[in-house]
Amino acid sequence: MLVIGVSFACYAPSLNSLQDQAYRSAVVIEGEVRSSPENVSSREPYSVNVKVLDVWPVNSGGLEREQLVTVGDFGSEAPCTTVEKDHKYIFFMDPTTEPLVFKASYAPVDASEPELKKDVERVLCEDCGKFKAFFFLPAIHSQRTIRATVAAMVM
């Protein structure tokens, strides 16, 4: 049996999927690529060193500005993207067993457009108001669960 899979990390995210990626990722940072391997083969996964420029407290993973972290598994498999040295990106990551080493959960997004960073901030803000988080709940929650939760918060 032949199974064909498509990685959505290969495509530029829409606004909703960008917010969804931020919501679902364990760690989200804005960072600048400091080093990447030379002669990257499209078949081999690779890692890059990233200087942390900004973190969101909700999904910081304990990281702070100016730290140097390693983000990996770029290449032919998800997330199948390339990143350029000295460019800024928003990275969506999951922790690994090693400190300061992360696996990319989605393709990074070029951070040169300020609106994209604001879209991520809308999802990851700490003090947005008690009802703001309900706009970004994953689709797996039923309307009844959401109504019951909102009703409990109002009481």
From TrEMBL:
Pfam families: NRG2_N. GO terms for cellular component: extracellular space; plasma membrane. Keywords: Cell membrane, Disulfide bond, EGF-like domain, Growth factor, Membrane, Secreted, Transmembrane, Transmembrane helix. It is found in: Cell membrane; Secreted. It is a single-pass type I membrane protein. Residues 21-110 form the Neuregulin 2 N-terminal domain. InterPro entries: Neuregulin, NRG2_N, TIMP-like_OB-fold. The keyword Repeat does not apply. One of its GO terms (molecular function) is growth factor activity. This is Pro-neuregulin-2, membrane-bound isoform. GO terms for biological process: animal organ development; intracellular signal transduction; nervous system development.
